[in-house]
């Protein structure tokens, strides 16, 4: 990792902060958040401003530059990386340490009286803006929306906003025409007294219109906004992204008398603010619905009395997959299992030769996936970790760090893909030799948690955080733990991480209840620093289940694994499993054998089939 | 239940609402909340204003009276009772039903433009005030603090504020002189930059000064406020409550050179506002710390920039019991177990005679408790429910509803006491004949949940909500559920319900992590409407435990039952229990036999001892 020299850059930024060509009054501080205007988890190169200005490229961090200081807040995952990448102009603010000042407290400490703190209002959410603004105000300072992004000003070779052509996703995959999704949203708007819904999350726009893009790596989304009114639908996008298929899909040139006709207006991406101002003038006594994750740039346009700031209804609509989406997700997972069976069969042959490393192995896995029908891309960078590298939860192998796969260390592989019919995310931990008794105990406890969650039965109305402990309790029993959530929502050929549900102990007031049709992951783990990491991850479907009783007609739910990849029984200490756990595992392996076995035969992959047969033998 | 005629009362209240002797400008609506000025769960008769004005006496409800309307918001537990107790002047607003307007939305609907909504600011918390005020303002109305309570004006025979003499609790019970508690609070204030801490919760004042009162039934507290400054301690209380012992305890007349001397100023209860205003003038750049549950009357006095609104540090300090308190709580629970053994032994003899009902039985239980040393009072109204009455979660037997105890129905008894050395709360469900297979299955599943929670091992840093599901999962497995939390904090000779910890699925951002020394209940249940109710409740202590590993030196915790009352094994279906569960139960019964048996011998109670012996036989 190299250190970036930021002296000249910071000089230019500080000059811009007091240049009244860009700011109407001098700024005493300028905040550079990590995100983009859509609160995206993954961002495009043109939005990597914090990385550009500081050199620090980790996924999380906020930079603040004042006349004299430049400080970077990031969390424990990135302390080392930040120190290596940032030069002496920067001070690292270690988040999570008790002595570290918060951004607000630090600002209050270093700023002169009555200071002006600038930020690009597109890069803070409405809530973040409100919180920061009121904290600064209570200390006599002011948060100022700088309309021109000052980092962009000094970023000479800033990449362009991507503008890749869109892909139309037919009803065969989506199960629901976009017109019906608009109708559903309008019903929900009516319930809340909202005349306009502003859609800001990129995956929500993609889901709404049954379109997919490739503007951001791993996420099949495209830069855009949408606005649904009672009588109109507006899509804010670079029109060049729409080919004839997309134009026809959106009925842009269709006759008004066509069945299902619905008028969509295409407007430039940057017109969102102007159009929102128009909407504010037209809205009367009704509300304009903005997502709580929408940017302050939008929020500040809409007066308080007409603004409804609440989770977008599309977030939940999207999370509840329909039967077509579920069928497609199943299909994607069978294909993905084929690729993984091929991979593990191949690894068994190749690892003993001692020539494979974490990177070359992961590359081969990508190749196996590419062979599958409707493959689009990976759904995230493959985590391919040998031994101690497996203990680094967010590890990404690089040529420099890549360890060789061997017969004496555990290998953790967390990977997934985007297929036109669905998104996958699967982790398996395997040993190519003989695991130690300690590794087996840890693995077995992780598996017991995985099964405990996967086989849980729970009433409608339960939130994911209520199930998290089921995945941890067998580790806790002996004083072990893992420091990440147990599961996240998964999109249908969309983002591999999506809301509004997950399985985590973290409190979130916007978390929705689990409902049939939702798709989440089940991924407990255990990580021993410097030694090994274990994670067992399936994508699972929330579905209704029959129970002996049905208390107050609540209806009960459980999970069904969509991921169908064998779990290595060599890693188990069978005496630690209950009868119920053994029978869950045997049933799971039987399903893998039947469903994936059939596909392997169809695809003519005898080696992988033999591997599958060997690895799905029942314990019971 | 009788219906109260409120016509004349409402006329007088409405007249007061526009009488500028009491309000500077006419009020269009007046809100009457349930609570008192201290956010107490149980309230004194003088604070039962909502019950007085409406006739509705349930524990939860808010009344709003406008010029034309009178409306009452309450939840499903109380719909029937409210309809029976309120006359036609009142409209019931059924909370939890989708069509029911919230108080704010209803107000906005019925009020004329630019209306003034009055409320006694002592009866709304700071947060409630803020929320309601901003909602009303966004619709052009105004929330007004009415300094004179208008209900009190029309309540001719309103009871006096209680003024009972205080009891001093010696260090033998508290383990910590009040002076040390002041020092501890000052350290915590310093960390937050607070120069003043305002103590508003009655149990916090009682805990702080090691004093107990009897102003509110079942809660050994007294009406008061406290204010801790860097140099002073102020106690706002009717000085008549302090006898010589209390005066000496507080060193009111002591020489300044006495060891541990700390000056306490005694001020009238009503002086809190005036003194708070003085504090605001003196505070300079430091903060005044108000509890988030403090009243708006206090909150509105303190300017935003010096106000720290956050959970009181005493809340957590109080929840973590010291070794003396734990020792005393153990002792209280052994005495309580003696009373319950006597009770159940006596019931076994008496029930077959067919002459005992829910009320006479509960009265006898109270007698058994009164025989125990240091008994002060019950800690709540005994829930004594036969058959279908046991299914009413908040059931209180009355002479009119009392069912007879029989040999063919389940009997649920939830009861507790205040002893000078501790507070108890225990529920047992028993059958005096032969339970049905269904009752046994339900009981066994409740017990499996009780054991699952009680024997859980978990790391430091875990919150109670993360453990709640361990108590429910065996019911969920067959489609059953219970609609209440699993546990609550318990005071040490203080309120039977206390914060900031509990075991519940409900999200609370102020919930603290579980720590060694905390005391909570473990009380899963199952309730079949019209048939029977089951609950198994122990008070349990959070304590450190040794584990095979100790991940990142977190330290692991578990629970130890303080309640030592046998669980009826007749109610069990043993084939449904795992080996681990059987061994937990056998160990528990062995402890009951040893510890409580010894005390029964000492107290010379042979019948109860024999009953204990019969009911603590091991299964394994």
TrEMBL record, chains A, B:
<comment type="function">
    <text>Metalloaminopeptidase that catalyzes the removal of a penultimate prolyl residue from the N-termini of peptides, such as Arg-Pro-Pro. Contributes to the degradation of bradykinin.</text>
</comment>
<keyword id="KW-0464">Manganese</keyword>
<feature type="domain" description="Creatinase N-terminal">
    <location>
        <begin position="10"/>
        <end position="148"/>
    </location>
</feature>
<keyword id="KW-0007">Acetylation</keyword>
<comment type="similarity">
    <text>Belongs to the peptidase M24B family.</text>
</comment>
<feature type="domain" description="Peptidase M24 C-terminal">
    <location>
        <begin position="555"/>
        <end position="618"/>
    </location>
</feature>
<dbReference type="Pfam" id="PF00557">
    <property type="entry name" value="Peptidase_M24"/>
</dbReference>
<keyword id="KW-0645">Protease</keyword>
<dbReference type="InterPro" id="IPR000994">
    <property type="entry name" value="Pept_M24"/>
</dbReference>
<dbReference type="InterPro" id="IPR029149">
    <property type="entry name" value="Creatin/AminoP/Spt16_N"/>
</dbReference>
<keyword id="KW-0482">Metalloprotease</keyword>
<dbReference type="InterPro" id="IPR036005">
    <property type="entry name" value="Creatinase/aminopeptidase-like"/>
</dbReference>
<dbReference type="GO" id="GO:0005737">
    <property type="term" value="C:cytoplasm"/>
</dbReference>
<keyword id="KW-0479">Metal-binding</keyword>
<dbReference type="GO" id="GO:0046872">
    <property type="term" value="F:metal ion binding"/>
</dbReference>
<keyword id="KW-0378">Hydrolase</keyword>
<comment type="subunit">
    <text>Homodimer.</text>
</comment>
<dbReference type="GO" id="GO:0006508">
    <property type="term" value="P:proteolysis"/>
</dbReference>
<dbReference type="InterPro" id="IPR000587">
    <property type="entry name" value="Creatinase_N"/>
</dbReference>
<keyword id="KW-0963">Cytoplasm</keyword>
<dbReference type="InterPro" id="IPR050422">
    <property type="entry name" value="X-Pro_aminopeptidase_P"/>
</dbReference>
<dbReference type="Pfam" id="PF16188">
    <property type="entry name" value="Peptidase_M24_C"/>
</dbReference>
<dbReference type="InterPro" id="IPR033740">
    <property type="entry name" value="Pept_M24B"/>
</dbReference>
<keyword id="KW-0031">Aminopeptidase</keyword>
<dbReference type="Pfam" id="PF16189">
    <property type="entry name" value="Creatinase_N_2"/>
</dbReference>
<dbReference type="GO" id="GO:0070006">
    <property type="term" value="F:metalloaminopeptidase activity"/>
</dbReference>
<dbReference type="Pfam" id="PF01321">
    <property type="entry name" value="Creatinase_N"/>
</dbReference>
<feature type="domain" description="Peptidase M24">
    <location>
        <begin position="327"/>
        <end position="543"/>
    </location>
</feature>
<protein>
    <recommendedName>
        <fullName>Xaa-Pro aminopeptidase 1</fullName>
        <ecNumber>3.4.11.9</ecNumber>
    </recommendedName>
</protein>
<dbReference type="InterPro" id="IPR032416">
    <property type="entry name" value="Peptidase_M24_C"/>
</dbReference>
